TrEMBL record:
EC assignment: 2.7.8.7
4'-phosphopantetheinyl transferase domain location: 116-225
Keywords: Transferase
Organism taxonomic ancestry: Eukaryota, Viridiplantae, Streptophyta, Embryophyta, Tracheophyta
Keyword Transferase: yes
Highest rank taxon of the organism: Eukaryota
Name of the protein: holo-[acyl-carrier-protein] synthase
Organism: Hibiscus trionum (Flower of an hour)
């Protein structure tokens, strides 16, 4: 089952495709996804959208071995991507994945049994904004305990770092359950010991069926991963899962699987995987 636990990441700052290279990469993806890439005006945004889809299709093909021509990836009403398994059977009870991109990085994480949520943040604020004034706009998204820890963190840089760490974890949880933008982030409160042994309270109740990790990617970027129980998923996302109920022993196996380091991939590697997969169809 550990094969279903994957962590891939791409640094897109190293990818500067020509118009022809970009068109070739686009041609490898199903036509149904093209508009979700070309709708962006800025090339940086197009690159992020492109690499996000390349990661999804390459990971599904490599991990599950599903023929590329039979791979169908859709989104729920709330926007979470999922694999339509259809007639294919594999020995992974609840394969699901999540993607995130911000700044220089695009990443994907998958799990074989638990829900998975992934979020990347780049520690920036809009130009001419003052740190404490900027974060004040988001104070309603945090519990009083979290907010106190943020504003008393120290220097402006330390305050901003604390703010984004909490934000990153909240987003990973919300994305894991498949909820949309309307989810009340203040309802999710995180506790930690020096940002390790991270636990969560939802609506004031500790939830031991979740685990979280937070990593410094460098260049002002952090990434968080949430792993939790499928029964926590919103209804639209539950319908995409094979199973939402497990006995305690089964679930604990999934919850305590190793959390591997991210494997760095290049866009060229992803393109090669999909090109070979497409040619073999």
């Amino acid at each position: 089952m550990e094969k279903g636990v994957q962590r891939w990441i791409v640094d897109i700052s190293n990818w500067n495709p020509s118009s022809n290279d970009f068109s070739f990469a686009l041609s490898l993806l199903p036509q149904t996804h093209h508009s979700s890439i070309t709708r962006f005006v800025k090339m940086e945004d197009r690159k992020r959208a492109m690499v996000s889809l390349l990661l999804q299709y390459a990971l599904v093909h490599e991990v599950l071995g599903i023929p590329y021509s039979d791979t169908v990836i859709n989104r729920t009403l709330e926007g979470k991507p999922f694999l339509e398994c259809g007639r294919f059977c594999f020995d992974i009870p609840n394969f699901n994945f999540n993607v995130s991109h911000h700044g220089d990085y695009v990443a994907i994480a998958s799990e074989p049994l638990c829900l998975v949520g992934l979020d990347i943040v780049n520690f920036t604020i809009p130009e001419k904004e003052i740190v404490r004034e900027y974060i004040q706009n988001f104070s309603s998204c945090f519990s009083s305990l979290e907010w106190d820890r943020i504003i008393t963190a120290g220097s402006n840089e330390e305050v901003l770092t604390e703010f984004y760490r909490y934000w990153c974890l909240k987003e990973a949880y919300v994305k894991a359950i498949g909820s949309g933008l309307g989810y009340g982030l203040h309802k999710v409160e995180f506790h930690h010991i020096n940002w390790r042994n991270i636990s969560v309270k939802v609506d004031g109740v500790i939830n031991p069926r979740w685990r979280f990790w937070l990593f410094d990617l460098g260049k002002g970027h952090w990434v968080s991963i949430a792993r939790g129980h499928p029964r926590s998923a919103v209804e639209s996302y539950k319908r995409s899962l094979k199973r939402t109920e497990f006995n305690e022993e089964e679930y604990n196996v999934g919850l305590h699987l190793p959390n591997p380091r991210f494997v760095f991939k290049t866009v060229e590697e992803l393109i090669s995987v999909l090109h070979k997969a497409l040619c073999s169809c």
